Every structure is written in C-alpha cells, then in structure tokens.
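User: Can you help me understand a structure? I only have the sequence.
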Amino acid sequence: MRPLPRLLALTDDRVAALDDLGVRAAAIAAAGPAVALVARLPSGSTDQLAALAQRFVALAAPPMAMVLVTGRADVAMAVGAHGVILRKDDLSVATVRQLLACHPDMIVLRSVHSFAEASAAVQDGADGVIAGSIWPSATHPDRAAAGTGMLEQVVSLGVATYAIGGVTPARAIEARAAGAWGVAVISAGWDAANAYQAAMELVQSWSDPARHSG
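Assistant: Let's start by predicting it. Here is the structure, written out as tokens:
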C-alpha cells in the first residue's frame, strides 16, 4: 500500500461548481503523493460524484497524487480511485473491506467527531481517521471546536489521524505537534490564490523538520 497522503483536499457542492475547478485540482495534485483530491458532493447524485471522481483521477495521475471518494466504495472502484472516506451514516469499515476484497491496496478512512467514534473506527480496521472539527470552521459554523486535546486523544489510538476544521498553515504545524499524520481542508486549499503553493505550505510541516523541531 502507498503511504497515506499528508493533505486531503475535500470538495463540496460550491467547490465542485467552480468554473476553474480543473485548474485548481491540477494545481493541488501537482504537489504529488503527499496530497489527495477528495471527491465529495453532499447534494450531488451518484453519477455526478462518479464524474467528479473520474475527473480527479485523470488530473491526479501524472503527479501521482491520490484520489479518494466520500461514502461510495463502488464509485471509488469504478473510477480507479485509491480509496474511500466513510462518514457517520455510511457503511461500516468492515463491510467496505468486504466490498474491496479484490482491491486490497485501497485505503479506508473514517470521519469521526469524538474519541469514542475514533476508537470504534480503529477497532473496525480503518486505515486512518479524520477528526474534527478541531478549530472553528466556516464550513460548519454550528459545530463546536474540539481543540488539539481531542486530536491528541485520537492520535493515542495509534492510527493515522487527520485534523479537519479551520485548518491553516499555522494550524497544520499545531496538528503535526499534536501527532497528527496530516490535515484535511476545503477552503484552505480550493480558495487559495495559488492552490499549488497553498498545498505545498500545508504539507511542509511534515516535510521540513525545522518547522516542528521546537
């Protein structure tokens, strides 16, 4: 299995509708194996999700970036993505593992909002968890920020942990200091004036030891 990426760049309905989505996706993917484009369409149909994921696969292939799909292992398999991110009401990790039996290299991540949910995901065999919201998030303004204390608790479970919610380059450094494997973003990646530069800055905390040596 390939090493897990450090940055997950998730879309939403707004991002997926951007006129320059392809340009921005290619720029983020240019950061290479350290990043993953995540096809996510909260209000979209299965066909629309598949089309978005397929587009990402084509853009991500040359720089060897990953592509993940939220919720739908069948879509991920159909388009040749590298894995799936499961949310609270999606199929269990164990069930998805069975669906992916012929694709053992595909990764399965679980989105969690508490230590209990993270613990259950780890016991179920998830390759990693996305924990949040760690900081106040414009995407989910009604969701209380859990703080890095919760992040450290989840990290203690011994599985790759991504921080999500209000992530900035400075907070990516905080996440790394708390033991996180990486971060997951929407606006910090897709809305940046220079999407490639933003992606590289977000993953730099894991590639440049000087940024977290203190």
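Now, to help you interpret it: The two ends are 32 Å apart (CA to CA). The beta strands are 7-10, 35-39, 66-70, 83-86, 107-112, 128-131, 160-164, 182-185. Let me know which part you'd like to focus on.
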